[in-house]
């Protein structure tokens, strides 16, 4: 076997290729190994059988880490080998270049999906071995310099991680700048991993700190050696100018690092960098005003969207199990390092429990909080007092105990094992019954809330239900893949299991199958119901925590773990989520955010409005429905009559009516409809050719204007009477009344017109090279805002000849609206952002959060809340009152205060990041 240093050694060598294969293909692999060696290629290949779950696995992992290419020998045996499958997963985690070669005929569906997508190199003809070998060498040597650089950065990243993120191992100087250019400019394969990107970002933060320290020393030195007043003045000015330039550069670097880390799934790191940028900006009142909106946007993204509150560092190996105490104040975790750790939920380590003879994989706390049960590699269940005293050792299983769970009354507990059995125990350790029937390892066991049933999930792809007395009740078929965890719903009416195929299987307790939940391409290794039973959280081998409603609607994906997520647990009050993972951490999350609330539709949300009288939110979508929403975010009514697509919507100023523009399937025309705000259909108003796109109420609420594909602006009374037609021409998208009701503006294909309604004539017109989609009058009527397809927002003072165009968006602008007091303007864009501007066009902030284009945006009546609607089927309700740097710093510091106080990997400077920040009431 070609050896590689163990995990705790610095990696000093690289390999051209790592070979993954089945032992049954050993003869071919030896021939290939010799061929590659003769061609001066270094090879990592293991000639010995790897015992499952042994130290050798880490050698295999490190071999993959240190190799430039991952070569997979495709054969029927390797395609069905779990060890080979695990090696592919490691290679994918490290973003290694995959090179599959096929030596025997194989069924495509047996092959790992990642390998199916790549062109195979055929070695199935022994007479053409040399020809195939040359093709292989060409593949291995493609972009060789880049691939080697990728591997070097990966090994440095891993060394840094293995040494507890030691700052002395970070990149510096030219090496750091080169790595940053790779990350930003390179789009080759293999891609860089999140861990690599975090390593580079952390290196940049450390480098920035060092530069600031040097600059401060330089300034002090210059001040100390000056003698003459003129010299002092001159040197002082130069030093101050350089200092200020360095501060601005540092702020910009921190802001960029925050944005990069957030996009790479490192939310706490992003928030830390954003807070550093914000605090430095607070200390630089002389900075260019254009710097403020950039920092504000970065910091706002982190504060709005960081769900992780803390991650608990202390275990030295993968963390598998975790459980909250009944009062929610403590948390216990189980790790492959052989220990249990008891934590306060603020992150403080309270106690380490050791006693298992090997790895620990699961833990459960009794309902009264007085006993901790743990399960592990040594085949035992151990019972502990929370103070660390070992109370009892339960023996009987013949292999690893994979899962343990207390009954709701705390008098019994169940354990599951790789030996295929489930044991029922009394709390005093008496074995009550051994349950058999599974044909594979049992991976999870769970009591129903009322204690009447027990469910077990197995690698045989089934869930079995048992009675309290151990009687076999029912077998629930799975999806022919391993089921890693099973849980009953809090009301006991259903149960769910996490599947290797990336779905959550769902049944009623009587065995009736319910629709599966989830659509992940990754294994789901863990799941948990929220205490109210409305949400299921699942841990995935993509390092994310996925949250779904029971109807299958995805609510969120929470990134942060740097390896597979092995366990998910909700706190008893549902406020927090604890997860464990293969990055040796326990992480604590809070979802949803206190300052931005998502609402989920079943289709693209095209329009949104707020009733100015009741505050009720109304939305329209691509499925032709209007939805009325409660303040809590649930749909109270779904309205639909003739429309199959809704393009525009407005609420009357008095809040009595809803006007809707859209497309009708039966007539093939664009129709305008009127509804009452309570959800009663009023009447159809008329048509606009093929499309009806926009509607608006007059300020007095007596008239409705509509536009569409026929080029006409039509005015109607709320009673349905046609009042006026204005011929704009072309396809029209947006329409709006001036605040005094005397004028009306219409926007469409490359043109905008302002009409005098009394005369029925055009007062002003604008011709552009791009389509204009939306418009909004300032509340005082002196300015018109315009949304343009050329990525710009227009501000047209009605005293000016032409608009002033604002740059910032990077895709079509779909919608604009002034705030009720006229001090701010919001714009929604296909670039997935909402931007806020001052009424004069100065940028305030860019709000990121939608995953696809943003179609519409509206202020509430008070102007403190903003509602955005997007193609990602979501409505986001933003609290705008927090959008000041000082407030965001206060909220961000309150969010991570436990993290700063308890995380042992932070530097002293990082721990002091929020020193002196006044705690704001909103942060509580």
UniProtKB/TrEMBL annotation:
Organism from which the protein derives: Halomicronema hongdechloris C2206
Transmembrane segments: 219-239
GO biological process: signal transduction
InterPro entries (UniProt xref): TIR_dom (IPR000157), Toll_tir_struct_dom_sf (IPR035897), WD40/YVTN_repeat-like_dom_sf (IPR015943), WD40_PAC1 (IPR020472), WD40_repeat_CS (IPR019775), WD40_repeat_dom_sf (IPR036322), WD40_rpt (IPR001680)
Domain of life, per lineage: Bacteria
Signal peptide residue numbers: none
Annotated Pfam families: TIR_2, WD40
Stored PANTHER family: F-BOX AND WD REPEAT DOMAIN CONTAINING 7 (PTHR19848:SF8), WD40 REPEAT PROTEIN (PTHR19848)
Tagged with keyword Repeat: yes
Keywords recorded for this protein, A-Z: Membrane, Repeat, Transmembrane, Transmembrane helix, WD repeat
Repeat region (WD), residues: 312-343, 353-384, 394-426, 435-466, 476-510, 517-558, 558-590, 598-630, 685-718, 772-800, 806-838, 847-881
The protein's name: WD-40 repeat protein
Domain TIR: 13-140
